[in-house]
Amino acid sequence: MYWFMALAVVLAVVADQLVKLWVVQSIPLHTVVEAIPGLFHFTYVQNTGAAFSALEGQTWLFALVFLVFSLALVWEFSRKRWGFTTFERWCIVAVFAGGLGNMIDRIRLGYVVDMIAVDFMDFPVFNVADCYITVGCIVLMVSLVFFNKKFWKEEQQ
Predict the structure, then answer these.
(1) N or C: which end of the chain has fewer CB within 10 A?
(2) More confident residue, 110 or 157
(3) What is the pLDDT of residue 39?
(4) What pLDDT band is residue 1 in, cutting at 50, 70 and 90?
(5) Could you tell me if residue 113 is inside a domain?
(6) What is the 3-state secondary structure (H, E, C) of the chain?
(7) Distance CA 45, CA 30 (A)
(8) Which domain holds residue 13?
């Protein structure tokens, strides 16, 4: 099953990178391109920080956090030390794929390509990899809190 998860990471990262390549080649920097009026538009932004441009220029810190997360992931998937369900492991795969997609940008370009801006609220511009991370984290937390009682019981022992 882990080879299938690795394939999913590769496909997710390829999709993320293709969208970013399309944006860089098709949309001038800071130009607004309407997608669905009132819902979202595309705007090419170069983000050197994290969410809300926090920690701008700290690529080394993002690389360190990603490395630690990657090592923990390898440990978890090889040793099965924590009580995650298969579904929760898929959520972790989504988070990893998003982190890898953004890390590729940071290393290759020195910034992350962001392009999706929502019109219905004041929110930072984000990208496909950010969607993987956000949805993966939210669904993982919901699963752990409401459906995986075994995870918490094992933690107490």
Answers:
(1) C
(2) 110
(3) 96
(4) low
(5) yes
(6) CHHHHHHHHHHHHHHHHHHHHHHHHHCCECCEEEEECCCEEEEEEEECCCHHHCCCCCHHHHHHHHHHHHHHHHHHHHHCCCCCCHHHHHHHHHHHHHHHHHHHHHHHHCCEEEEEEECCCCCCCECHHHHHHHHHHHHHHHHHHHCCHHHHHHHHC
(7) 6
(8) 2-148
Q: Is 157 part of a structural domain of the chain?
A: no
Q: What is the dihedral of CA 35, 23, 114, 6, to 10 degrees?
A: 110
pLDDT tens digit sequence for 123-136: 999 999 999 999 99
Would you please indicate which residues are annotated as catalytic (active-site) residues? 114, 130
Looking at the domain assignment, is residue 155 inside a domain? no
Instruction: Please identify which residue in the block is written with the tokens 């701008």.
Output: 56
Q: Which residues pair with 42 in a beta bridge?
A: 33, 116
First-to-final CA distance of the chain: 28
